[in-house]
Specification:
The protein is α+β, with helices and mostly antiparallel strands. The protein has one domain (2-82): Aspartate Aminotransferase, domain 1 (Alpha-Beta Complex), CATH 3.90.1150. It is built from two helices and four strands. Strands 1-2-4-3 form a four-stranded antiparallel beta sheet, with helices on one face. The two termini are 28 Å apart.
Length: 103
């Protein structure tokens, strides 16, 4: 499911005016978004945040995006969909933080 969201994010960013090319690269388990276009870094960051939040709406996912660097050809961003770090189901072991005890 998460991989599908990353693919949809890239497709929606490619269709945005001012963005030419969008590539994902993975280093040390982190995904980096390489974007070529005519928009400034802060404008790109706003577009990426807005698009990611739109895709994550209706889910419990959150979006995190940080500008990493710029060079002559690319703007590089570290982008992640963050999954909640809490139990989402009952495992039957009568844990103290069981979802059945939530209000």
């Amino acid at each position: 499911m998460i991989d599908a969201l990353y693919s949809r994010l890239a497709a929606q960013l490619k269709s945005h005016t001012g963005i030419g090319r969008v590539d994902w690269r993975e280093y040390a388990g982190q995904r980096f978004l390489y974007i070529t276009g005519s928009l400034a870094a802060n404008e790109l960051l706003a577009v990426i945040q807005q698009t990611g939040e739109h895709l994550a709406s209706g889910t419990r996912l959150r979006v995190q995006c940080n500008h990493v660097r710029s060079d002559a050809r690319h703007e590089v961003f570290r982008f992640r969909f963050l999954v909640p770090e809490e139990k989402m189901f009952c495992c039957g072991n009568q844990c103290t933080d069981c979802v059945l005890h939530r209000k």
